[in-house]
Design goal:
By secondary structure, this protein is an alpha+beta fold. Helices cover 39% and strands 27% of the residues.
């Protein structure tokens, strides 16, 4: 960069500006002096240009510093030595400024050392000593342009990101959502912007989850978790979410950014796998694994409440004859209908399972003792004794049921199941189609 020179005293045009017409000679000198002081002391880059020749005829110290020229070097240069446009384009733009068709221009200017900077130039005509000149105020916007370009790239990356992104203010009011987020929720951008995040709440996520979420992010931490939300259509969907606070220049939280992923399909697959592992595929009832888990939980809870629990072990009588008569497909249909009748005998607190073959087991909570358990067992026996209609034919079955009570028989699930099983065999030995209670 060339050494900067001081602006020498000069007679011809000292600065851009226009003296008032009709002023006295003294007033004109005073005004010229005042104008020159404003021009010389202004921190903005200022140039005075002859639009006819295209040469710079005056420049203030801020311009000398910015462009890296001495005064005598900068003045006299054709503006195309600074502006990266061609001479023809430069003159066309100066003509537009002179006719005041446009006052603000975006250019790239070349400095003395060859560096190019993005500038915004505010330019217009001015009369000086009988000549029409152009004044130009130049603002270096290079860093701003770079920041804008960077922001545009980030914005484009967010907009077309494969994950959903949402930005809210500190109070949870939505200020930005990307394309993926709009696709997932079904809401248009104008419906979401300015709305609170409650617009997506399903009412099915526990309040404690939201309390933990807000305590974490307002404390400056990142919250990760899953929320069950609702789309515009009313459809429920699961979101895996990461929410982080954004800080202002003073380190205070002013926004939150949430990165979200729709995991509804993953949840469905997990549920399907869980059901396959814990339910009987023929009847849809829980299998032995799930039933024993629930029995173990019920017994543990009953220990502290003195609640009476009943376990019913049910076996269909002479079911082999059904398979021999109807075949295995017909036998499966009978088991499905029998399972429906077992399921129909349950309360919300009860549970039934198919252990395999024609064996079913029921867990009854809060039965009130032996009398209540026997009443349910007899009702179930009578239900299964009603005729089954299979393939247009009527089929009659019976069931033998054994009943064991807890905690009278102990709190061990396997022992309780064994007691109920033994009571069921007593019912079969008594002639089938009967109910028997295990000894207390």
């Amino acid at each position: 960069m060339k050494k900067e020179a001081k602006v020498p005293a000069r007679e011809e045009p000292r600065s851009h500006g226009e003296g008032r017409t009709g002023s006295t000679a003294g007033g004109g000198v005073e005004q010229e002096s005042h104008y020159h002081a404003l021009f010389a002391n202004n921190h903005a880059v200022m140039l005075l240009i002859d639009p006819e020749s295209g040469h710079v005829i005056d420049a203030n110290p801020a311009a000398l510093k910015f462009y890296g020229y001495a005064y005598g070097e900068l003045t006299g240069l054709h503006i195309s030595a600074i502006n990266t446009l061609s001479r023809e384009e430069v003159h066309r733009e100066m003509d537009r400024a002179r006719r005041e068709e446009r006052r603000c221009f975006s250019f790239r200017h070349r400095l003395a050392d060859g560096t190019e900077r993005d500038v915004e130039v505010y330019s217009g005509p001015i009369n000086r000593q009988g000549r029409q000149l152009l004044y130009s105020i130049v603002h270096d916007v290079t860093e701003r342009r770079r920041a804008e370009e960077k922001l545009a790239k980030i914005s484009q990356a967010l907009e077309f990101s494969p994950v959903a992104v949402m930005i809210t203010d500190r109070g949870g009011r939505i200020e930005y959502v990307n394309r993926k987020y709009r696709e997932i929720t079904g809401y248009a951008e104008e419906e979401l912007l300015g709305a609170g995040t409650k617009i997506l709440k399903s009412g099915l996520t526990p309040p404690a989850t939201y309390r933990e979420l807000w305590e974490t992010i307002l404390g400056g931490g990142e919250w990760r978790g899953e929320l069950l939300n609702r789309k515009k259509s009313g459809e429920l969907f699961w979101e895996k979410i990461s929410i982080s606070p954004l800080l202002d220049e003073e380190g205070e939280i002013n926004h939150f950014v949430a990165v979200k992923e729709d995991i509804s399909e993953v949840k469905r697959l997990q549920e399907q796998i869980w059901l396959q592992a814990h339910t009987d595929q023929l009847t849809g009832l829980p299998n032995r694994i799930l039933f024993m888990q629930r029995l173990r939980t019920a017994l543990a809870e009953a220990q502290g409440t003195r609640e009476r629990i009943a376990l019913l072990f049910l076996d269909l009588d002479r079911f082999k004859e059904v398979n021999d008569t109807l075949g295995h497909d017909g036998g499966d249909r009978v088991l499905q209908k029998a399972a429906d009748r077992v399921r129909g005998s349950l309360r919300e607190t009860d549970c039934a399972a198919r252990l395999g073959g024609d064996e079913f087991v029921l867990l009854l909570r809060e039965v009130g003792g032996e009398e209540g358990a026997m009443r349910v067992a007899e009702k179930l026996r009578a239900s299964l004794a009603r005729p089954f209609r299979i393939g247009g034919e009527e089929l009659r079955l019976s069931a033998s049921i054994g009943v064991a009570l807890a905690p009278a028989r102990g709190a061990d699930p396997s022992s309780l199941l064994r007691e109920a099983d033994l009571a069921m065999y007593e019912a079969k030995q008594a002639g089938r189609d009967a109910v028997r209670m295990a000894p207390s």
